[in-house]
Amino acid sequence: MGYPRKLTRRFRAFDNFAISFTIINIISGIFSSFGFGLNAGGPRILIFGWIGVSLMVLSVGAAMGEIASAYPTSGALYFSAGKLAKRHQGAWSWYTGWLNFVGQVGGTAATNFAAATFIQAFIAMQWPSYQPTAPQTVGITAAILLVQALANTYTVRLVAVLNRISVWWLLIGMVVIVAALALIPTHHQEPSFATHFANNTGFTNAIYGGMLGLLVTSWTFTGFDGSFHMSEETVKATVNAPRGIMRAITCSALTGLVLMLALVYAIRDYGRAAADDAPPVRILIDALGVHSAKFLLLIVIGAMLFCGLANMTSNTRQIFAFSRDGAMPGSRWWHSVSDRTRTPVKAVWLAAVCSLLLVLPGWWSHTAFTAVVSVNVVGLFLSYGVPIFLRLRLDDFQAGPWNLGRYGKPVAAIAVIWIALSNILFMLPQQYPVTPESFNYAPIALAVVLVIATAWWFATARRRFQGPVSYGSPDEVAAMDLI
């Protein structure tokens, strides 16, 4: 790919799969957004929407996997965008990289903020006199980011081990939660409950309300580009990186459907659960009692913490690669690698600090925090869509060992259409009446990012950034190899 090797290849095929599976994190994603789905479509959209959106996301993963096989670098999406563009390679690469960077930082911030929220919910269940506050949530989030940064600082091998543990935590945790919800309650909903439809969004159009419910699944299926970003640390990356993407999406789709069914059929009082501040916690308490709910809540919190760790690892590799090509302020700092651990330590702490900056508005306004991190999903999926769209336009795409053959273009076309549709949904109003508290700030957050990136591009970047840097021929790069 034209780079001297700085990072050690210690990720096996399972490790590569583990990071994307952990970032997708069905427990974290479903528990964080389940309440929104109860009010935007109900069980019908939660269950059948999960199946439909999973298939669409699988097409995105397959199209990304083809590109990962052809360009297995830490730069991943922005690198491949620069290589696939027919013209203006620097601009395509620039916008893709910044969308991916902001999306990943937002993902780390949002996941850890959710973990802090659930930690406080657990504390309040354990000690009823405890009153959660916004400053306490921000403080807990900051502590989580500190621990995750320390974990990412000390050797990629430790992160790989933690990601392996996280896979089993997720799978065993999912089995425990599902088994508890299936076996302990004396009452479950009737089979026909799967078709129950509810629209509590305030919009009178039921189709619109149901389509908003699809965002539950879309929110969950983010971050599978983590396997792509870890390519330079994965053995046989041209095959194992795309396989990691596909396996992570497939396993998450199947296990997530089981978890979704378990939660839906364990609902006792639909109205009470839908109106609760934390609907999944309310479902656990109603179905299992407080003590069992607290135990299961620990599983959920653990899953969220693992998710945040994997998010930061992926974010760090994107920062490392983007800086290596001179696209970030202080690039020479952020792409340096520790001689002892062979990890981009400075990039780790930049990722942690940027995530903390996004969390800080939550100190005084949850609405402000939502506005900042809402660009997470939009930014990520747009960064997924750009290289796939460019690959679709390219007639002479040089596929890697893992490819879709003649199905490559049709699958890429489906992926681009779905990304466009889902991003429109993410930017539409999600609750009526529209007030400062209920307003969807995703378009504004995205516009701010694009305006800054555009101003920066025309001011200085277009003269110094021409896309991914080539350090020389394969022989020349091998002579520079640091390991």
TrEMBL record:
* Principal subcellular localisation of the protein: membrane
Annotated membrane topology is:
Multi-pass membrane protein
One Gene Ontology CC term in the entry: membrane
Give the location in the cell. Membrane
Under the GO molecular function aspect, what terms does this record hold?
A: transmembrane transporter activity
Q: Does the keyword Membrane apply?
A: yes
Record field: transmembrane: 21-41, 47-71, 92-125, 137-155, 167-186, 206-224, 245-267, 287-310, 347-364, 370-390, 411-429, 441-459
What name has this protein been given in UniProt? Amino acid permease
Q: Which organism is it from?
A: Streptomyces noursei
